[in-house]
Amino acid sequence: MDRMDLLDDLAGRGLLHDTTDRQALAARLSSGPIALYIGFDPTADSLHAGHLVGQLFMRRFQLAGHRPFPLAGGATGMIGDPGGRSEERNLLDADTLAHNVSRIQAQLSRLVDFEPGPYQATLVNNADWTVSIPMLDFLRDVGKHFTVNQMIAKDSVRSRIDSEHGISYTEFSYMLLQAHDFLHLHQTYGVELQAGASDQWGNITAGVELIRRRTGATAYAATHPLMVRADGSKFGKSVGGAVWLDPARTSPYQFRQFFVQVGDDMVGTYVKMLSMRPLAELVELLERHEAAPEQRLAQRALADELTELVHGREAAETARAAAEVLFGGDPSRATAATLAAIAAEVPSVTLDGDIEGRRVHELLTAAGLAASNSEVGRLLAQGALRAGGRVLAADGLLRASDLLDGGYLVLRRGKRDYLVGKTSRAG
RNA sequence: GGGUCGAUGCCCGAGUGGCCAAAGGGAGUUGACUGUAAAUCAACCGGCAACGCCUACGGAGGUUCGAAUCCUUCUCGGCCCA
Questions:
Q1: CA–CA gap between residue A252 and residue A10 (Å, rounded)
Q2: What is the ipTM of this complex?
Q3: Length A115 CA → B61 C1' (Å)
Q4: Which of A16, A91, A180, A417 places its Cα 20 to 30 Å from the Cα of A26?
């Protein structure tokens, strides 16, 4: 993308919440490559869907010819950002933090390009330049440039001071650490722009201020809106909790499903904020979606694109195939890989021996898919049970031919519930 | 402390000796419809080796050919009087 178009493109996607002097920033961006950073605090050992906006924000800059510096907050994570919460954080111990940082670094390195070259991304960790600073130096070199008056004026601090829990001195100093990060990156790598979610505005501008006072240079700030759901609640939570980027916490299938199930009211917003496709294409996609919302074109396109970005092409394709089966498709033509993905999502049992002539009753009750043999009998009578694509007869007897590719038995109860039996042949 | 009413299936709530696995409603399940939405309609909705048997109407004991229903007692709860 042409550098001159970047801010307009971001604005068109609803990704610009606020910037320092927009004209100046636009002029700076068009004059040549800029280095920018976004910080991610390691409060868990994985980022989640809500972090995607920020990561992709950096990717957009990189594709426009700029150099991103994704930052893992090994230092700030020890303190905790006071914003967005009503009470004090629990501090993480050093081991947990180190573990979290290493995992998050791996995730940060997926969505931006680290290949050597002019736009190469650089992964940084603020613990590297923070842990060894003498306290007196910090107070003199950083603290001296801020008045408590302006610090307590920030919304995130204000709301905590007004709350019954108050705010500790530790969290109060978070802003200074983040400001110092910006200064450090500015001096070390020439980073001129810090981006982040809109709730980071105060912390980011603190850094802009510090750079100006210490070096006289102009630095820039840009924030994107926090992603929220239609009801205003936090984005990225599903029934099972947060939607993580780590496939061990949230499988590629579940990750994809989260986006497939986005409501029509929000899908337009999400598509524009998250898809890397050109805005014009997205406008056209959304028009087609609105003409036939039942096809979930926008949701599927977004889900497929993001799953592929985060988990890779192969995992995305398997997740898509698994969803097709789990939402009514015929499992008998599914590949072994798809069946394995399905087995990971639904209850499963190990099958010993031959299934020819075996009753499904015990399999279903043992797996909790039916409460009793009586219930299995009722389900059979209602034609609610299938093995592979075959509706089971009232006797509930299985056939050897019900085993699918790779030795999987796929039992379906009603529309939604599945049980996968794995024979010794299955992986 | 005295009196009185009550305790029923996941929830609410009928039932006051056999016709009671227990009305009705809600929830839930399945099917039809459908957009991986909602609504609507229908069936199901204790268990089992299943035209029968077992378990179950707060707990224990009793009366009776037969008890959710009657008696005794215990536990818990509502209300009234001290």
A1: 27
A2: 0.85
A3: 84
A4: A180
